[in-house]
Design brief:
Blueprint: H1 7-48, H2 58-83, H3 96-99, H4 101-116, H5 119-129, H6 131-140, H7 142-159, H8 165-182, H9 186-197, H10 202-219, H11 221-231, H12 238-260, H13 265-283, H14 286-298, H15 301-323, H16 329-344, H17 348-383, H18 386-426
Helix pairs in contact: 1-2, 1-18, 2-18, 4-17, 5-17, 6-16, 7-16, 8-15, 9-13, 10-12, 11-12, 12-13, 13-14
């Protein structure tokens, strides 16, 4: 069973069709009004030729009606010529909109760009908005903050759903491996090593490693004796083999004790080597290449993918369980973060810095947005069917253009009457 279409998907086309239908009815009514004025002038002209008209009135009515007809017809021709050929005749310089659709599209896009996307104007609007203050007021209001937290908390279950965990972990693993394979990790690895060898945790770690190796060697005395006896000649006394094995064991144990101490020569040499290791890694030695290769293998999809999958699964289950509780830690944390942000943004330096960051982000992105918006408007208008483009434009401006016809008819009639009166007066 298919899910019902979203409400917006249904209502948007219906609303557009309803608007177009209302515009068509409005345009038709105003055309009828303009046509009625022209018909009235034509009717007056016809009546002026009737035999029952008084001789003193007929010429005046004829002059007024003729001028009204001329004005009305001229403006009908001008308005019609914008959108189509009058009477279907291919008269030059008519059907201006269909013939110049691309030029009109570029002009509209340029007008929007010039009048609405000018950087100085938009930046001034952003400053006037004071987004930091608006955000601070939103977060400070307990009811608004609660709605915001509910919105974020309501989005999290969908984002944390089990569906798609494996592809997400694999994608993250691939992205991590691809990023690490292209990045020069030597400075980062050298910095981490430099921080480690200079940290207080180095000495305890070296002592722990040395102690474990010493313990291991104590447990392997028999293995050393067996190895020496196995390599010895048949004629060599076993007491000699045992003495040699003990000497080897004591030498190894003594060296490990020296490595354990920073004051012994061997221990000092080990620590000097460790302190020089970051510079060696940063210079790109063979050891650095082996360390980097091991790091990349560890962060590759085969290793990092399952780790990320387990991590995401654990985080998801814990978060979903917490979100089911009205007093969960996540909701409390979101409330706390929002309230803390509101308090911080009441401070003028923080508010000014945030507004400055918004303005900088806006001004840096505006050139790309501006060009993209201008191109989008031009491409969209040019991509429309010429007939559809013309009809849409006529629906939106045709109603006002009909007043040109009405005014042309009325003004022509008035001028005709005025000229007739002047002619009569001048003729005596």
């Amino acid at each position: 069973m298919h899910d019902p279409a979203p409400l917006n998907d249904i209502t948007a086309p219906v609303a557009a069709e309803s608007d177009d239908a209302a515009l068509r009815r409005d345009l038709s009514r105003h055309r009828w009004m303009a046509g009625s004025c022209l018909a009235l002038a034509a009717g007056g002209w016809a009546i002026s030729h009737a035999a029952f008209m008084p001789p003193g009135i007929a010429p005046a009515l004829r002059a007024v009606a003729e001028a009204g007809m001329v004005g009305g017809l001229a403006d009908w021709f001008a308005v019609t010529a914008l959108f189509r050929h009058p009477l279907g005749l291919p008269i030059p310089h008519t059907a201006l909109v269909p013939r110049n659709r691309d030029r009109i599209a570029d002009g509209i896009a340029a007008y929007i760009d010039r009048e609405f996307l000018e950087p100085a104007m938009l930046v001034e609007q952003v400053r006037r908005m004071d987004p930091a203050a608006k955000l601070a007021n939103l977060l400070a209001d307990e009811e608004d903050r609660g709605r915001l937290v509910d919105l974020v908390a309501g989005m999290l279950p969908g984002l944390l759903s089990r569906q798609g965990d494996a592809p997400l972990a694999q994608a993250l693993g691939r992205a991590l491996a691809a990023g690490l394979s292209q990045a020069d990790l030597r400075p980062a690895l050298a910095g981490a090593l430099r921080h480690f060898v200079n940290s207080p945790s180095l000495e305890p770690l070296l002592r722990e490693i040395a102690d474990r190796l010493i313990h291991l060697m104590h447990g392997q005395r028999g293995w050393v004796e067996a190895a020496v006896a196995g390599k010895s000649r048949w004629w060599m006394p076993s007491s000699v083999d045992k003495s040699l094995a003990d000497t080897i064991n004591e030498a190894i144990l003594g060296h490990l004790w020296d490595l354990r101490s920073p004051h012994a020569p061997a221990g000092q040499e080990l620590r000097d080597w460790l302190k020089a290791l970051p510079d060696e890694v940063e210079a790109g030695s063979e050891l650095a290449q082996r360390l980097l290769e091991a790091l990349r293998q560890f962060t590759g999809p085969e290793v990092a993918g399952p780790l990320l999958h387990d991590l995401l699964s654990g985080l998801r289950d814990a978060a979903l369980a917490d979100l089911d509780r009205p007093d969960g830690h996540i909701r409390s944390a979101l409330h706390g973060v929002a309230a803390s942000l509101a308090d911080a943004m009441r401070e003028a330096p923080v508010r000014d810095r945030l507004n400055q960051a918004v303005e900088q982000a806006f001004t840096s992105a505006l050139p790309r947005w501006r060009e993209a918006i201008r191109d989008f408007v031009a491409r969209t208008l040019k991509g429309q069917d010429v007939k559809e483009f013309t009809q849409r434009l006529e629906l939106r401006v045709g109603r006002d253009l009909q007043y040109i016809r009405i005014n042309g008819t009325l003004l022509g009639a008035a001028i005709g009457g005025l000229l007739y009166g002047l002619n009569q007066w001048l003729g005596g």
